[in-house]
Design brief:
Elements (H helix, E strand, L loop, with lengths): L11 E5 L3 H10 L4 E5 L3 H7 L3 E6 L2 E6 L1 E2 L13 E4 L6 H7 L7 E4 L19 E6 L2 E6 L2 E6 L2 E5 L3 H10 L3 E4 L4 H14 L2 H5 L10 H20 L8 H9 L10 H8 L10 H11 L4 H12 L3
Helix pairs in contact: 5-7, 5-8, 7-10, 7-11, 10-11
Length: 307
Amino acid sequence: MKSKQRVSVRPTVLIIGAGAMGKCLAALLADQASIIVYDRNPAISDALLKGWFILKEKRHTRKVKVRSLASLAQLQGDKVDVLIFATKIMDLQGAVVEASGIDPRCVFFPQNGIFDLCWTKHFLNTVKVCRGVMTLACQETGPGQVALFYRGHIYVGGDGAPLVSRLFRRCGIGVKACRDPIGAVWAKLIFSAVMNPLPVMTGQGYDILGKDQEIWKLVRQALEEGRATARALGVRLAFNPLELIKRLREGDLAGIAHRGSMFQDILAGRPTELDFITGALVRQASKAGVKTPALEAIVQRAKLAGA
């Protein structure tokens, strides 16, 4: 006789990582799930202990109530349906190790970048894993405040994709399920490798794409280098990153002071993901025998600017 799966009437979602992305995910899911948030950074964790934060989206502002933890030990007997790691890729291993012992129905990894998830099974007692990427745009705008500029879509794949897809769709978020999420992971990697360093190296927002022809040429060349790398490695992209960038160039975020996570990290004095995103793509290209002068120029210019 098959054992019954644990099913919550109102699912419980634990989000580890309470930066801009973690807060946005908490806000988007709050209407359909019980949200618990935890951040390994004591400063962020302490700020969240009040149990709420402010989300601004277009002309709407609302207070989002969450249950925040000072330590994962406070979970005690809580049953977690979906565990979301909303950390940066360089913080992921430490977060997974700290979450060891939690028994969720599903784990969702939406990090940008390329990494093997096999090692996580040594720490997380679950058989359902969902890998994916998001095309939403958000940033923190003040203490306890986050702005969501663009919802985009969530691309998911893996054993846990059906559960994660249902959860986000119930919240009115566009979900695209992939048989193999690697195509989405690579498409977002190429997009992020080119776009995240752009405000850092130029000191301007994404509207520079329509104002500076040299920058636009560099971006187009870097994108083609990324796509050539994917082809060389036999990866079929789930979406064309150039189409997303063209929408930005044509004004999707026009008039919005959004400069990406890398720029925000520098302002806050935090390490950036430059080496884990753009640098990782350059290294993959080198292994595949693809030349990347444009991507390497972006890395060099971003480093000179402080990334």
